[in-house]
Specification:
The protein has 89 residues and is an all-beta fold. It is built from no helices and 5 strands. It has a domain of 47 residues.
Length: 89
């Protein structure tokens, strides 16, 4: 079973969970950025497709991703983030 903390299933570093997730919507630049760790830890970016960029730390662990050309489906409603919390079994 893949570890949900890393996209490739490996655990790296000393962090065992995500304390916070930062979501940034830039309406003018039409981007949606999600940080899973501190943005200051970014060491390299990999463009996965024309629309998605992965931000990685020095160990290569994904610490965020950005979607380019993003616009909310309902511009009048604005940007909405739904949060669900699951407890570990």
């Amino acid at each position: 079973m893949l570890d949900p903390r890393l996209f490739d299933g490996r655990r790296e570093g000393k962090r065992s969970d995500i304390d916070k997730v930062e979501v940034v919507h830039d309406a003018e630049g039409q981007t949606l950025t999600v940080w899973l760790d501190e943005p200051s830890e970014e060491a390299v970016c990999d463009e996965m497709t024309e629309e998605v960029v992965l931000m990685k730390g020095v160990t290569g662990r994904v610490i965020g991703f950005e979607t380019l050309h993003y616009r909310p489906a309902d511009a009048k409603q604005g940007f909405v983030v739904e949060v669900g919390i699951r407890s570990a079994a």
